[in-house]
Write a structure and sequence with these properties.
Strand order of the largest sheet: 1-2
Distance between the termini: 37 Å
Radius of gyration: 20 Å
Number of helices: 12
Order of helices and strands: HHHHEHHHEHHHHH
Number of strands: 2
Length: about 300
């Protein structure tokens, strides 16, 4: 247990230096400036090509969502990613060590021996499919849904709504994602960065005030006209639809797709959201309120 606590301690203590380095040193895989650049570009598209023309540039909760975006991406998500990945790696290695194996012994694929595009494709497909399934769990398991309500409390869509989520979500996502990804070895830092920035860009676009569906590519890539139905207050079933993260492919394959008509003026939210807290702290504490959970 002491070893695991040390891993977590070192992950947190080393993160401050990492964050300072990200802010003060520009490089192509810089997550801090990468997020800012993607956000400004997608926000610019919203301003130039607004789908809901009566929606203000500084829409409802614009600044709250912007705070969520930086809080979750830097003060939470990357710390969780670092700590969980290192703890998970040690736990899995210790577990395998009991039967005389190492992590490399159970890896099904080594992408370092493949062309870069093939490794990127495998990493992207596996991670997106696992996250699609995790997203479905967030809607189907009442305990997890109470955390996911934070994301669905958005009432006007905009790029920054992409990263409005409760701190528990990356814990669930990263925990379930680790083992499938661990079975694929040989990833380079550059490959992870490319996939990560691609997912951020698609996610921002999905939540933006844009009326795009990408034509025939809508059956492959998630898009604003499809994803807005995922946030609809009135849905055809209690568990939701259109769970795609970057790809819409999984929804079409597993029959969870739903785009009945143009959802431009769709009411967003969930049943009972009029009583949901509107401030950051209230939203973060909401799932811990047992009375509200029992009556939701």
């Amino acid at each position: 247990m002491h070893d695991y606590l040390e891993i977590i301690k070192n992950a947190y203590s080393g993160y401050f230096g990492y964050l300072i380095d990200e802010i003060t040193r520009f490089h192509w895989s810089n997550y801090f400036y990468g997020l800012i650049l993607i956000s400004l570009l997608v926000w610019g598209l919203e301003i130039a090509f607004p789908w809901r023309k009566d929606q203000k540039i500084f829409r409802k909760d614009f600044f709250l969502d912007t705070f969520y975006m930086f809080f979750n991406f830097f003060l939470l998500n990357l710390i969780v990613l670092i700590a969980l990945s290192e703890v998970a790696a040690k736990f899995l290695n210790d577990l395998l060590g009991v039967i005389g194996l190492e992590l490399s012994d159970i890896q099904l694929v080594d992408v370092s021996s493949m062309p870069m595009w093939a490794g990127l494709l495998i990493f992207f497909l596996v991670s997106d499919f696992v996250q699609w399934n995790t997203h479905r769990l967030l809607h189907r398991v009442p305990f997890l849904w109470n955390f996911h309500k934070v994301h669905h409390s958005v009432k006007e869509m905009g790029f920054a709504a992409h990263l409005r989520y409760h701190w528990m979500e990356p814990v669930v996502y990263k925990s379930l994602l680790y083992i499938p990804i661990a079975l694929i070895g040989g990833f380079a830092v550059e490959q992870v960065a490319i996939v990560h920035f691609t997912a951020i860009t698609i996610g921002h676009l999905n939540h933006a005030n844009l009326g795009w569906d990408y034509g025939p590519l809508r059956y492959l890539f998630n898009n604003p006209k499809m994803h807005i139905w995922h946030h609809g207050k009135q849905l055809p079933n209690r568990y939701g639809v259109n769970f795609g993260i970057s790809l819409s492919l999984w929804d079409y394959l597993f029959k969870t797709d739903y785009v009945p008509y143009n959802g431009k003026d769709l009411e967003l939210g969930f049943e009972g959201d009029e009583e949901f807290p509107e401030d950051f702290l209230g939203q973060e504490l909401y799932p811990l309120d047992i009375h509200k959970k029992e009556n939701s």
